[in-house]
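Give me the fold.
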Amino acid sequence: MPANMTSKFLEKAVLPLDVAPHVKTGAPRTAVIRNPNMEKLQKGYLFPEISKKHEAHLKKYPDAKVISLGIGDTTEPIPSVITSAMAEYVLALSTPEGYQGYGPEQGQMNLRKAIAENVYQNMGIKESEVFISDGAQCDIARLQMLFGSNVTIAVQDPTFPGYVDNGVIMGQTGKADEAGEYAGIAYMRCAPENSFFPDLSRVPRTDVIFFCSPNNPTGHVASSAQLRELVDFARRNGSIIVFDSAYAWYVSEGEGKPRSIYEVPGAREVAIEISSFSKFAGFTGVRLGWAVVPDELRYADGSPVARDFDRIVCTCFNGASSVAQAGGLACLSTEEGRSAVRGVVGVYKENARVLVETFASLGKEVYGGADSPYVWVRFPGRRSWDVFAEILEKTHVITVPGSGFGPGGEGFVRVSAFNSRDRVLEAAARLSKFLA
């Protein structure tokens, strides 16, 4: 290292004591500068904030029987056909013949093949285009790392906060204004007034478009015509769509509502799809998901996006748990497995129907719930956090304030169908009494 470079390095690395920053409490500091993008993040991440409110409520009312219809964690047991496959795999690991160590970072080929053949039947997806992960939320972060700090992004408003927060951390945005909108993000308003689909003629061109259907939190499922419009919009602008299909199994078949972006012609050239076993198979704690990156998807210089994503996966990830992958294979590779997870989804869809009917019977403006585990309820003229707090205080039921999903969620709360039937019925009774 040249002498002048060594000098500059030491100046930066070792601060003299008389110029080093001090903390009044006497707590030690390093000389490492904090990532300035962390300063931009608003409060805490939404769902841990809800958990803190839950804990505080239990301290205030230790005898309260709190019912959570908030964070969206599954409650139904994983079907035994799936857990048996995982148990068998685990037991085999204790034998010389069955032991396996590191697997392919991209995932075991038999599971990649099962996803390509069963989830993307007749859509032309190859097993080599499927990358197994530890969940869709982790894939969001890896994709943001792939795209880097210089891209522009668009998101539905309201939408799952992970898309925005990861973009902020990566440095893709400016600061948030008083309404909670970050500079540098195109917010595509999705409201009842526009059938929860953005007016794309008013959306500026961005490099990446995050789109979730069925949408979290509104529960809206985009139609075939709407997704064709979205794909055409991306093709005209040279954008990449990141399509989140984590709730696709909740979409009723045969109603013209696509479960995958790849049901739309031309999507392979402009779209990545991410998905998860969490909400249809109960894998919220097991952790398993996947991303599809088609071979046709290319950067402006003609290089394949899949090649770079493969490098990200190999660099940042040692592959999903082989035990979890054994469970994922059991979900999809036999009719018994597929039928079992459809049964789990059916329980939550019935819960959602109960909640929709409860709010509708009370004259509330309610959306979602038919093809989604989420019910989206409007409280005109009210702030979402105030409604959340009042419901929790008076009914001991946890919901999620709509404003936590973006400025377009203000005045709404999201109610989750993820709980046992008896607790959902009890929550519905409490909410009916409160709202009446």
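Residues 15-23 have pLDDT under 50 and may be disordered.
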